[in-house]
Amino acid sequence: MATTEELKTQLAAQIEQGRGFEAEQTAKTLGADASPVLTRFLQHKSADTRRIAMETAGQNANPGNCRVIILFLDDPDPEICDLATALLGKCTYPPLLPDLVQSSKKHPEPAIRGPLVLQIGIVGGKTEIPLLQSYYPTTKESRLHRDLDLALARLGEEGACNRLIGRIEDPDAGTRYQALQDCIYVRDKSLVKHFGPALKDYRVVVRVSIPENPVPKDARMCDLAVMVMANLGHPLSYPGEPLQPRLELHLEEARKAVEAMNRQ
Fold first, then answer.
1. What are the b/e assignments for 64-73, b being 16+ CB within 10 Å?
2. What is the distance, to the nearest Å, from the Cα of residue 218 to the centroid of all Cα atoms in its chain?
3. Coil, helix or strand for 121?
4. Counting runs of H as helices and runs of E as strands, what totals does the chain give?
5. To 5 degrees, how large is the angle CA 47–CA 53–CA 58?
6. What pLDDT, on a 0 to 100 scale, did the predictor assign at position 62?
7. Which of 81, 90, 126, 183 lies at 20 to 30 Å from 248 by C-alpha?
8. What value does the mean pLDDT of the chain take?
C-alpha cells in the first residue's frame, strides 16, 4: 500500500499529465493531505492544469480543499474563476469564515462577491453583519443586494428579515415565488407564519413531474409553500416534498398550521 508521500507524488503527476479522474480518486484517498499538493498548482502556467487541480479540490470537499477553491477565485483565467465561483457552495465549513471574508473584501465584482456573502451567511455569525451591510453602497447590482439580504436574514438581521417577509407577502407572483424559494436558504422556521397568502395563492408557477408520475403537471404557489414548509422541518401529516400539486385537504391542513402559529 502506498504511503502518504507516495500518494502525494502520484497526485501531482496525475494533475500534471491531465489525468483528472485518477487525480480525483487519489485525492479522495489522501483526504486532507491532498490540499498542500493542490495548492502548488495555483500558479501553474497551464490553465488546463490549474483547472484540473481545482476540479479535484471540488470533487473532494474538505476545509483544506475548499481553501484551494477560494484561492482560485483570483485566477487570471475567467473560466477558471467562474468554475471556482460555482464550487463555492461546497464551502460550508466554519473554519473557512476568515478565508471567505478576506476574499469577499478582495472581490467587489457582484458575480463573485454575491456567492461569497451567501457562504458567509451560512458559516458566519452576527459579528459579520456590519461587514455585509457595508457592501450595499458598493454596487447598484440588484442580484448582489438580494444575496446580501439573504445572508443577513440568515444571520438574523431584522431589516433583511423584514424585507424577505415583505417579498413573501407581495402579491406579485414572481416576487413571491422567489421569496418562498429563498426561505430554504435562510432556514428560519418562523417565516412560515407569513405563508398564509401564499397558501391561498392558486396561480401556476412551474411545471413539475415526479418519478411516481412522470407526466408534467402544474404546480401552484400554494404547492410551493407546502414544499418549503416541509423543507424547513414544519410537521405535516403527509410528505411535503417533492414539489407537486396538493389536494385541497392538504392545503387546508397547512393553512390551519400557519393560523395556529400566528395565535401563539
1. bbbbbbbbbb
2. 26
3. helix
4. 15, 2
5. 120
6. 96
7. 183
8. 96
Lowest mean per-residue pLDDT among 82-96, 146-160, 200-214, 216-230: 200-214
- The total number of residues shown for the chain amounts to 264
Dist. CA 254–CA 224, nearest whole Å? 12
Nearest Cα residue to 44 out of 59, 56, 32, 29:
56
Please give the Cα distance from 131 to 156 (Å, whole number): 14
At how many degrees (to 10) do helices 4-16 and 20-30 cross?
160
* Pair 201, 226: CB distance under 8 Å: no
Tell me the residue type at 128: E
pLDDT beyond 80 at 214: no
In whole angstroms, give the CA distance from residue 218 to residue 80: 38
Q: Find residue 218's DSSP bridge partners.
A: 207
Has residue 247 got a pLDDT over 90? yes
Q: What residue type is assigned to position 49 of the chain?
A: T
Rounded Cα distance, 230 and 239, in Å: 7
Which amino acid makes up residue 14?
Q
Q: How far apart are CA 115 and CA 127, in angstroms?
A: 19
Gap between the Cα atoms of 56 and 90, Å rounded: 13
Environment class of residue 162 by beta-carbon count within 10 Å: exposed (0-12), middle (13-18) or buried (19+)?
exposed
- pLDDT category at 211 given cuts 50, 70, 90 is confident
DSSP class of residue 124 equals -
For the residues 211-235, what does the mean pLDDT come to? 91
CA atoms of 54 and 90, how far apart (whole Å)? 13
